[in-house]
Structures are given as structure tokens and as C-alpha cells.
Amino acid sequence: MILKCNILAKCVGVNSRNWMFLLSWFFFTTNMASAQNQVLPPAVESGVDFARDIAPILQNRCQSCHGPDQQMSGLRLDTREGLLKGGYSGPSVRVGESAASLLIHLVAGRDETRVMPMGGERLTGRQIGLLRTWLDRGARWPERPQDAEEFEELRSPLRKQHWAFTSFQRPAIPLLKDKRWSRNAIDSFVLAKLEQEGMTPSPQADRSSLIRRVSLDLIGLPPTPREIEQFLSDDKTDAYERLVDRLLASEHYGEKWALHWLDQARFGESDGYQADFTRPAAWRWRHWVIDALNGNMPFDQFTIEQIAGDLLPDSTVDQRVATGFHRNTLTNRESGFPLEMDRVEQVFDRINTVGTVWLGLTVGCARCHDHKFDPLTQKEYYELYSFFNTATEVNIVAPLPAEMTPYLEKKQEYDRKWHVLMDDYNVHQLQAEWESKVLPACLHPDDSTIDLQWKVVCEELRFEVDGIHQSRFSGGEEILRIPSLDRPERYSKNLTRYFINYTFGRYIDKKIYEELGWDELKERLKTLEAQYPALSVAQTITDNSDPPDTHILLRGDFRSPGLQVQPNTPSFLPPLANVNEPNRLVFARWLVSKENPLTARVTVNRMWQEFFGNGLVTTSEDFGTRGEKPSHPKLLDWLTTEFIDNGWNVKAMHKLIVTSATYRQGSMVRLKLQSRDPSNRLLARQARLRLSAELVRDAALAASGLLDRRIGGHSIRPVLPGGATDLGFGDFVQWPESTGADKYRRGLYIFRQRTLLYPQLMTFDAPNTLVAHCHRERSTTPLQALTLLNDPVFFEAAQGLASRILNERQGSVADRIDYAFQVSLGRTPRAEEQERMLVYYHEQKRILHDQPEPRTLLIQGNAMSGIDPIEAAVWIGISSVLLNLEEFITRD
Amino acid sequence: MRSHYFQNIQDRRQFLQTACGVGTISLAQLLHLDRLTADSGELTNLNPLAPKLPPAPAKARNVIFLFMSGAPSQLDLFDSKPGMKKWDGQNLPPSMTTKDGDFAFIKPTAKVWASPRVFSRHGESGMEFSDYLTHLPSCADDICMVRSMYTEQINHHTGQLKMVTGTPLVGHPSMGSWIMYGLGSESENLPGFVVLNSGSGADAGSALWGSGFLPSSYQGVPFRSEGDAVLHLSNPPGVSNLMQRARLDAVRDLNEMQVSKVGDIEIASRIASYELAFRMQMATPELLDLSAESSKTLEMYGVNDEPTRPFARNCLLARRMVERGVRFVQLIHGTWDDHIDLVKGLQNNCDIIDRPTTALIKDLKQRGLLDDTLVVWGGEFGRTPLAEDRTPGQEGSRGRDHHRQGFTMWMAGGGIKGGQTVGKTDDFGFHAVEDRIHVHDLHATMLHCLGFDHKRLTYRHQGRDFRLTDVAGNVVQKLLI
């Protein structure tokens, strides 16, 4: 047990200071000091025969996990060598000393949390006794031929022959019987398959459907009636291609595609645990993503900057901002939660996310042990893990281009006012007194004469105030340790802000607090800061100056380090280019190397998924051995090589796909096809897809004319009736509603509070922001209906749309109904629809006429003055009906 | 007995027929498609919440999970340890300190704190309760008390995830979602999985009713105490029910026209979702309106009294929901996280929950609902036999730290054998030593009561078949009738 402690001391601590910390009051476990004297079942007295007594135990109870098929914890118990060598925990036995053998301890259940075998009945006392005697007498194991490569052979089909792990070659474009339909290579692959099946593609969608489809797919917004009209009247042959070019050049393109990337990056703006503290700087990374996508940054560069932008030679601020990808991990700041455990969880999350996003592999399963059907071994998992184990978190100043000049102009003035404020309330002296209490608690966490409360403050400082070098383990404590006059200004101010706003008030008498006028100080400080906006900050990662070694963590537990490992990539994938200094940057380059069989395949497949509802590989998150096979393997490989040959040009790929005849097909369900290919894997038609949560909102706001089209920047919080009450934990989660134009920004900008995801997003299947999501669900629920019918945001959209119809189109009711259809659905109504709307129009008039309730409620706050309230209310009803149609929230 | 399941499928067919009656082509198409999907075993694709038969005969149809977030102290409520008195204020004996322990705040050198409460025996089995609880003991013959729970987690968020989702990792479905996935909903006009919150809520927040990687149709619907019970349940201001119905009729008719044009069956389920939404709008006010309850019932729960009011209302609503076919009611009350001044904290919480909880069990029983409603009460872990003393000497400073190796939960109804105490902790209530029951075992047993083999209720995600019980869990036969 002492041995284990030593190992722990050597392995777990990031550096000596952190190791001290681990032993402190804050984290303590008696895990390592389990029962020393518990009696083991005695060795049996009789003779032991391997074949009769031992082999059956090993075969029946051990080898399914520690045998030829798999070696959990690296242990193999079907050979004597394996037994002696042991696994990740070290040797499993000591021959001649059964009482000191790990294997015996485990089967005897010395540690209740760790008993072997893992499933089924425990071994009997007699069985343990037999094993003991056998070990004590030399662990004789009669020779039998063993194929050392047996295991590798069993696993090799998984590792070597799985289609997604093999390299790709550019397939020849198939020859078609009928060449008329095909527009580009994509179509040749698709049609060849259809021809094989004796099926025909669908005719091209009508042009109004086409412009709505491609607009929603490329920029996430429906086309305006004007844009539709222009397109419909454009009779040049390249009208569609020019439309596509215009959309690809739109700044809304970056917004639309950021959404998909944010899902994968599990982007959130709060910690995700317990109090779910917000991350006010998180938006800065989202801003980077939008910019990068709009600028058509090649995907390889996009990858490298996000994985390791900080390690690029002379990295720019933007390249460091890109690493914010990894700051989307959750953080558990719950008091009493071991810091090192949280850090380790974050590293797990980082490598798991990278595995899913770039490699399309669920690597996280190998965290605890090897799996029979998983090509990745536990050891390989920790080799990947080690690329990220050296990273630490740091927040940097990352101003947007427009921020710098006004900031510098006003800085002196701001500083002067700041100092006046501090003097007015004697902040320096009070802070110094407070620091004199907290600093000793930071320096001597084990000193029991220091009140626990100051230790708690110290802990909070580490989390909640930025440090210069790393925020996780030192944070604000680092600042506290620097004599106050030597502190860099930004950090010094941060500490003071924290002191004023969060901590001081909690530790003084209420009366004194009031006498000092502290609330007034907070208020004045708030006003001052609002007057002089600070420079934007970004959350980034950087390499730890004192990086920890990486060990296999037995059972995935940070307290159980095993074998030490070095950074490396899995053996079933191509080797690293630079094996001398394998770091995150080398890893990033490996991800997008031409030899990597996964990244490009996974990426083009997800593009395909966004344009057709499903990828060519339907399990777009899983290209592993348990994932689905591609429906069109050659098309997938062709797209993959095309992507790489194009220099990872994303917009070019998007253009290629949306200009194909395959993409342009109609989406009508064809009964005959439905029975032969119910899930439309052969692509004999386009898919009808319900819009993503954010796009449902955007479409309603766009139709209403309320949409605020500003790109990038801070997040917003739309109206939420009843606020966050009852949904979050305690009063921690607040939801201060946005006002003015902010209210009408796109769904992409809605603040992603992890434990309280904005209900409209949750209702329409936005992912939970906790782990990488590659594919959104599209459910149909009554809560969606309630949202579209009654949510004030959508009702306001209906009011806006009504106002547009009434103001923008004069004429008969039928004319206006026509226009309403055009604005909302991008088409004119069919006769039966026109007729039904008219019936509804008159029905509503009648109801409203008889209705005692004030009709003005309906049109409150809306620009419909001068219009008969009943007429206005009727049009709000019609608008709301349109916004509730299945067609409205569907991409045809 | 279970024929209503099939009835419902029949109804749904009829619904599709009526809903599509207007369209001329669509009906035949839809029925054709319906048959197709039914043949391929994917009928539920149309309505993921359609009620399903469990694979095995079930004792329980509904679950009410009274989740006491923050972790109540078992030592001061249920697990009497008179022998601890002589150790009060001292260190644990060496035989105990060598045991595996893991604390959030305190060290193993913290001093033993024997419960200051008085325990007494109740019911035929002589079940023990402390004097904090004055009502609940009258249910002793219905309750199965489990004193030997254990878990691996000692922090709230991860502990709550473990208790409710079976894993400390984020992104996994909650128990209620698993059950919705397995059984669907029997309610025609209410959500099948409802969450009611009182007190300060739970640390893990919406993860406790989230559907994780399961389709989001299975997520719980939180009923709110402010504004609309279900978000956006009320018509917008100025819109009467008559107008709402006219609006819905127009939406339905236009959607039907679209079905006949494009033939997409998804539109039919969209139409159905609007009908359910409208029924929810109509049914929920009735559910929430307690005026039809007798004054005796209101009195029994304490609906009109302080401090019981919010929790009592939720308990009564839980019964009303079960009556109306809501499958899983998760009632969260917190926080029980008594690090400081445990004596007062427990008193406050017991004053709130004791009477309503008792009333709920009695009420379910007198209405014949307890037999097929599984009631489960407990927190995410337990609390230490050692005192946590943050400011020694100060009054009310003493509390207890988080504890994972032994704690108490109780269950009733739905196939559980009442009137028995199962499991035992050691002399200090430190480790469960007899009939140790892990969180996975609890989940396996709950699923068993609902007619499931917990190993077979799986969902394929990222290439792996996941289940509520991960790779562990055994049904605890002792708990069952």
C-alpha cells in the first residue's frame, strides 16, 4: 500500500506544489490504506494439479477478460509469461508468496471496490486456497504450444482490414448508361448505383423549392420574396450556380456552418456542473469560428489552429483564440471535488472530443480497460491522452479589430476614475486586510489553526480569477502571492473586482457592510465598467511549463496510475511524422496528413449529412468497427480525395455538392421507392428535413422582418417567461433578458447555459452541449407545437409578419394571403390553401367580433397603428398559422 | 388486462385515417407506409411515445421518485447506531479508519458524532425512525427500508448523475427517460415524464431529466411553479380558446393538404403533435386545479399549510398525475446538504417533507394506486458518522460530510415488499456490510418491477449498446414481493 502511495506521488502530481495540494485537507483518501490485516483464505494443504485444479479456474473465470481475445488492464492469464508479467498494475503474482500477490488480493476481495472476477459469483475460499498453494509451490504451468501472435491475429481484422482504417485511392468515375441527368462526378456515382438497382432519380425540384433549400442549407435563412423573384426570372443557364456563389459569399454562411461546428465542439458558455458558473469570454471562440468559415480557411489549417494554434511558430492572437475549442470542456468547481480529478476529466473529454470530431472514433471506451471489439487498446488511448495531458488553460486578451483604438483613447481617463473610486471606499486597505487572512490559508492548506473558510476563499480564487500562467490550479492565487505593487495591472484589477463583487461582503458583519456603502461601490464600479468597455478576452490553452508524465490510469481512475506511456498514435493508423518530439502540434498535423484515412473521410461525410439529412455513413460519429458501412463507398472516397486535392477547400466542396443533380432532386416521397429503399439511402430523392432549433427561430424572425442580422460578437438571452425559476440549481443560474435589437439576433447567439439550455433550443433537439454531437435529431413533439403557437418570441414574429403583410401589400384579402405565403413559405398558395385561409380569415373575424377580451392585447407594442384592431388581429392569426405549418419549419 | 396498449395502437391507426381523410391519395399511402414500418418493427418511429408492453409481466406501471438532492443524513433519520454514543467526540477506532473512505471536506481524523436524536420502532417489523419523522413511521408496514446503499461518488453533481443516470459522466439519459423509452406514455394528454421541483432544486439540474443520447422525445418535462406549469402552455395574451382552436384547425387542414402533396408521413406526426399540444392545454389546468380534492385530502398533505405547502402540492400533483397515466414523476426537493448546522437543517427539511410524503403513500394506497406505483425516496449518497466542524465552538457549526459507502433509501409499492428493513451498516453506519446494494442494483430492481431485464433495455449509441446499469447491477430479490 505504501508502494502505491509512492507511485501516486511520482505520477499524479502536475508538479510538486500540486502534489502538496493533493495531500491537503482538500483531497484526502484512505483508499490506499485499505485493510492490511484482513485474513486471506488459507492455502490448501493437499496437492494441486494444474490441469485439474487451476486451469479450470483460469479458463472459466479469468480468461474471457484476460485471455487471447482481450487483455483488460493489459493482463493475460492464459500463459505463465502473462501471469508473471502482469498488467498495467504491475506483476500479478509473486511466485512463492501468494499472500503478497495482487491476484490473490483481488480474488479474495480485500478491497471491496475492486474484486475479481468482475461478474458473477466470487471465487470460493477453496478455489482461492488452490490458487495460493499453486503459487506458493512455484506456479507450475505445463508447457503447451502458444502462438504469440494469436491475439494480434484475432484483433487484426478489426484493426487492419476495417474499411475506414485503410487508405483511400481516387476511384474512377463510373460510366453511365444515360448521361443526361448527371451534372458532376457525384451524380455518376449515385446514378450508377440507382441504375444497378433499376431505379431512377427524382426530377429536379421546382425552382422556388430549390432556392429555399439551398438558402437554408448554405446560410440558414430563407430567401426573401425579392431574392426568389430574381432567381425565378433569371433565365440564364448558370442562374443556380450564381445563386450558390452569392450564398457562399454571404457572411451568414459562417453563422450557419458555425452551428454545426459548435455542436461538435460541445460549445457551451458555462461550467456545466452544479452552480454552472458562466463563461463570459466563451463567445470569442465562436466569433473566431464564424470568421474562419466565412474566410474559407482550409480545413487542415482550421484543424491545426484549433488543436495546437498556440504551438505554431510566432502564433498570432487569433491562432491562440482558436485553441478555445478545448476550453469547451466542463469544469467542476464543486467544493470538495478533487482538482486533479477535474483536470483529468477535462483531458479525457478533450481527447474523446477530438476522437469523435476528427477521427469519427469513440475512443473514450478504452479509458477504463480494453474491449474485445474495440480496435483501440487502453494503452493506445493513454498515448493519445498524453498529447493533451500537457496542456493548461489560460485566458488571454484578444481584442476584436474595432476595440483597440477607443480603448486606448479612454484608458487614462478610466484609470483615473478607477483610482478615485478605490480611494473613496478605502478599498486598498480593506483588500490588504482581507489578503492577510487568505494568503496564509493558501500557503498552508494543512494548518489546522487556519479557519476552513479562508481555505475555501483560496480555492475560489484559483477558479474564479484569472492567473497569468494557468487558470486551473493557481488562477487568482497566483496573483495573490505576488506583492500587490508588483502585480500586472490587468490581473491586479481582476483580483480587486473579485474582492469587491464576490468575496468581501460574505465575511463581514452586515452592519459594517452597510456602513461602508459597499452596495453603492459595486453599483458605481458597474457603471464605470459599462462606460469604458474592457478588451475582449479569450479562453485558450497552452502547454504547461512543467508538464506531468502520463500514465495509464487503471480503471480510468486518476488515483490509480499504472504504466507510464509516451505520446503516440494508435498502431492501426499511420505513424506520426515526427516521432522525436511528439506534441500537440505534431498530432494536429498528423490528423490532417494525407496518410490519415479518417479525418477527411469523416469530414466530407458530415458535409454530406448536412445536405442530405444522413451521411453516406449514417453513423457520422462512428467510423469504428461497430459503425455502419458507407452506402456509396466509392463516392465517399472520391469526395475525400477531391477534398484533399482541393487543399481542404470547404466552400468548394459545398459548391460541388449543392450543384449536383443529386442535391437538386425533388423531395416528394415516391411510393414505389419507399418500399424498396425506405430510408432513402440510395438517394433517389432529396430529403425533407425539419430545420434545426436555431434555424426555426431564425426563419420566424426573418419572415417577421424582426431579425437582427449583425454577425458575431456577444451572446443574447431571449425572453423566457418565468425566468430561470425552477429549472436551475438554487439561484445560481440567472437569465437577464436581452433588450433592443439583441432580442432578435439569430439562434446561434443564444447563450448556452449548460444546466439550463434555452427551452426553445432544447425542445427542437439542440444538443446538450456537454459532449460532441455530430448529428442532430429531428423529433416531433407537442412541446414544439406549444412553442410555435404560444412562445412570446414566435407570437411576436407572427405580429411582425402581420404588420409586414398589411404594410407591404395593399389589395384584397386574397392578394394579401398570396403575399403572406410568399414571405413565409417562398411560394404562392394553391387554390385549396387560398380557400382554407379565407375560411379562417372570416371565422376569426366572427370570433373576434364576439369576443369580450380586449383585442388590443393581441397587437400590443406592434407597429400597426391606424389599422382596425380586428383586422390586425386576424392577420396575426393568419401569420401564426403560416409559422406553424410543417412546411415552414421544413427544408423541402 | 393490458389490452389498452393494443387499443392505443388501434386508436392511432384510426387517428391517421381521420387525420388524413381530407387528402385523397394520402390515406392509402400512409396506411401502406404504416404497415411497412410495422412489419420492420419500427412502428414506434411514428410516435416514439406510443405505449409499449414490457417484455415481462410487471408489478409497477408508474414510478414516483422522490429525489432528496443534497443527501439526507441516514444516521439521523433511519440508521440508528446506539453504540456510537460511547465514541462520541472521539476518533474512529483503528479498525474503522483502515476501511476505504473518501471525504469531500473532512479528514478521517474528524471526530465521531453520535446522532443526538431518539429512535423508536414502528409497524409489525419494528422499523426504526428517528424523532425527526413523526408521520412517516405510520407507513412502516408499506415501506421497505434499505440501509445498505452505496455508490462511488462523493460530490453532488456526479453523485446525482450516478443516482439518476447510472453514471457520473455527463450526456447519459435519466432513469425517467430510459423508462419512457422502454414503456412509452399512457397519457393521452399529459407528458409521460414530469419533473416537479421544490426547495433549491438539484445540483445536476436538467441532466436529471435529460434524455442524454436517447431521442429527446423521452426527456422529462419540468412543471414550473411560476407562470405556466408547462412552458408556453397558455395561449398568447388576447387569444381565447376559441381562437386557438380555429388556429389549430387551420394549421391541421393546411398540413393535411401538404401530406397529400408530398406524401411525407412526418407531416402526419406533426399534425398529431398539435392535437396532443391542444389536449395538454386543456388537460393541464384540470390537473393543477385542486379544488375537486376534499378538504380532508388537502389537510392530509398539508397543501394549505407552511412550510409543507410547495412540497405537499407537488406530492398531491404526483398522485393526480399517476391517476392520469403519467408514467414517471420525479419530485425533487433540496437541499439536504447539511455540512453546517445539521440539526436545524434536518428539522427544516423534515418539517417540509414528512407529512406530504406520508400522505402520498397513504393516499396512493387508499385509492388502490400503490400496488402498481413504485415509490422511491432518497438522495445521491449519505453522510459521514464523523462531524464536520467548520468553525469549532460556534453554535450550529456541526454538520456531516458526504459519504458514499453506506446510506439509506426507502421504497414502497409497485412490487416492493413493504414492512421490512434490508441491509445493515457497521457499528458506525460507516460501511454497508450486509446485503450491500449499489445504485446499479437499485436501478436493476426498479426496472425489474417495471417488467424489464435491465441488461436488455439497451440503446445503441456511438457503436455501443448502452444501458441504465452500465455493465453491472443485480436485481435484489429481497426487496421484492
Overall description:
The complex is a heterodimer of chains A (892) and B (481). With 892 residues, chain A is mainly α. Among the domains of chain A are: 113 residues; 131 residues, no CATH class; 102 residues, no CATH class. Chain A contains 38 helices and seven strands. Chain A has a two-stranded antiparallel ribbon. In chain A, strand 4 and strand 5 form a beta hairpin. Chain B has 481 residues and is an alpha/beta fold. Chain B has a single domain, classed as Alkaline Phosphatase, subunit A (3-Layer(aba) Sandwich), CATH 3.40.720.10. In chain B, helix 7 runs antiparallel to helix 8. The longest helix of chain B has 25 residues. The N terminus of chain B is likely disordered. At the A-B interface, strand 1, helix 30, helix 32, helix 33 and helix 36 of A face helix 2, strand 2, helix 5, helix 7 and helix 8 of B.
Features:
heterodimer, A: 892 residues, mainly alpha, two-stranded antiparallel ribbon, two-stranded antiparallel sheet, 38 helices, 3% strand, disordered N terminus, B: 481 residues, alpha/beta, Alkaline Phosphatase, subunit A, 9-stranded mixed β-sheet, 12 helices, 34% helix
